[in-house]
């Protein structure tokens, strides 16, 4: 709670926290918009596939000419690890590229803030292990749901409560799993032309809708907190904030969970498409259990929403501001040497599942695409099944037919075993399956 004070001391001492940003998309741009208003924080290097676009993004978010002129814009990822940069923010969204950038940062002795949750779920436990051994911080990105949820779980445990469930809200119906980029905009209330004029990527937005992004984020939370993953995948129960303690409790207590201590996503839509009352579409939550009657009485006395027993209560944050909040991770790493969430083990994985009947010879197109969506699985079950991670299901050819709704396996695709991302993922599986 003293990050601003610590940053002010650095500013007065003439030692600003210096950050390199890799990927100046929406998340990165939101972060950049806060930089001019955070004295003591500097971003001298921005790496992007299109440096001119990154420069224009800085203008759009309010950087003046002098700040832009003093910044290096480049395609070269190696530029991020040079000089006196302390923290590298990886915000590309590409799993393989993210792993490469994170390992380069760690090797260079730089802290790494992994906005790229796709890379984190593909190999984050091993990346975090490498960072710890190197004496640098590997961190989830504050402002995104995984770090915010991990913070709430930590709060609950540190105050002596048992965590029953934790996760986020989203817009979900079962039919969304098969939605492709061709049909995505209707579910957002947009025309294709409107989306194109706004620069919106249909495959990326489809990954938010078809369940893939939710699965990835819940895997990241499970790996960071030690919470379990539902054995058959996410349930997405319809639930508003007032009903969290009632719905998000174990089945033997009247709720929908198979057991206590799991991650789960709640839907902002009833199964017939009606909106849920006081939904949590943009927020995160934790459901906790009172350890004794006295604590349960306190829940009631201080106005917490509880179930009918009074033993289960919920805390929630109705919104998340993604890149606008990223400074918390950057400053926590640089000034406290602490992450805002970090994988501690390999508990959750995200497997590629066929959106239609797929035939040998077809090319998979990754998360949010036409061929597969990502399903949350316990890591033990994923390894046992030989499931292909969604993060490696892009531009790979099927060697076997895969039925609609079936998990795609490593054995079903042509995999380049010499690829760095594949090799690193395999190394993580070997280390954390012992």
UniProtKB/TrEMBL annotation:
Q: Which SMART domains match?
A: SAF
- Family annotation (InterPro entries): DRL_cat (IPR048423), Gfo/Idh/MocA-like_OxRdtase_N (IPR000683), NAD(P)-bd_dom_sf (IPR036291), SAF (IPR013974)
Residues forming the SAF domain are: 349-414
Query: Which Pfam families would you find in this protein's record?
Result: DRL_cat (PF21135), GFO_IDH_MocA (PF01408)
Q: Which domain of life is it from?
A: Bacteria
One Gene Ontology term of the molecular function aspect: nucleotide binding
The entry's protein name is Putative homoserine dehydrogenase-like protein
Protein species of origin = Afipia massiliensis
């Amino acid at each position: 709670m003293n990050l601003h004070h610590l940053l002010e001391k650095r500013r007065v001492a003439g030692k600003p926290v210096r950050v390199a940003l890799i990927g100046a998309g929406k998340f990165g741009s939101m972060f950049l918009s806060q930089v001019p208003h955070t004295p003591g924080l500097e971003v001298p290097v921005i790496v992007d596939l299109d440096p001119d676009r990154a420069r224009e993004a800085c203008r759009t978010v309010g950087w003046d000419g002098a700040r832009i002129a003093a910044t290096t814009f480049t395609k070269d990822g190696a530029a991020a690890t040079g000089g006196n940069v302390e923290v590298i923010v990886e915000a590309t969204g590409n799993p393989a590229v993210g792993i490469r950038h994170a390992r380069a940062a760690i090797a260079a002795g730089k802290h790494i803030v992994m906005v790229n949750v796709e890379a984190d779920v593909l190999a984050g436990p091993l990346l975090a292990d490498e960072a710890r051994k190197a004496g640098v911080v590997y961190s989830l990105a504050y402002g995104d749901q995984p770090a915010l949820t991990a913070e709430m779980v930590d709060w609950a445990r540190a105050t002596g409560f048992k965590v029953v469930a934790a996760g986020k809200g989203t817009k979900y119906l079962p039919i969304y799993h098969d939605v492709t980029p061709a049909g995505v905009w209707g579910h957002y209330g947009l025309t294709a032309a409107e989306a194109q004029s706004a620069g919106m990527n249909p495959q990326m937005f489809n990954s938010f809708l078809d369940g893939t992004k939710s699965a990835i984020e819940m895997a990241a939370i499970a790996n960071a907190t030690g919470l379990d993953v539902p054995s058959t995948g996410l349930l997405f129960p319809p639930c508003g904030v007032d009903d969290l303690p009632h719905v998000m409790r174990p089945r033997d207590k009247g709720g929908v969970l198979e057991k206590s201590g799991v991650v789960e996503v709640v839907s902002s839509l009833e199964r017939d498409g009606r909106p849920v009352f006081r939904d949590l579409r943009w927020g995160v939550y934790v459901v906790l259990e009172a350890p004794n009657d006295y604590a349960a009485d306190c829940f009631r006395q201080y106005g917490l929403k509880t179930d009918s027993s009074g033993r289960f209560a919920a805390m929630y944050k109705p919104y998340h501001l993604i890149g606008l909040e990223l400074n918390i991770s950057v400053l926590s790493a640089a000034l406290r040497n602490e992450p805002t969430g970090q994988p501690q083990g390999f508990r959750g994985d995200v497997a590629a599942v066929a959106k239609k009947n797929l035939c040998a010879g077809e090319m998979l197109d990754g998360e949010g695409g036409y061929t597969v969506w990502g399903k949350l699985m316990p890591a033990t079950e994923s390894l046992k099944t030989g499931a292909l991670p969604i993060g490696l299901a892009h531009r790979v050819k099927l060697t076997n037919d895969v039925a609609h709704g079936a998990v795609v396996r490593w054995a079903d695709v042509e995999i380049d075993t010499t690829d760095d991302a594949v090799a690193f993922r395999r190394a993580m599986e070997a280390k954390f399956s012992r």
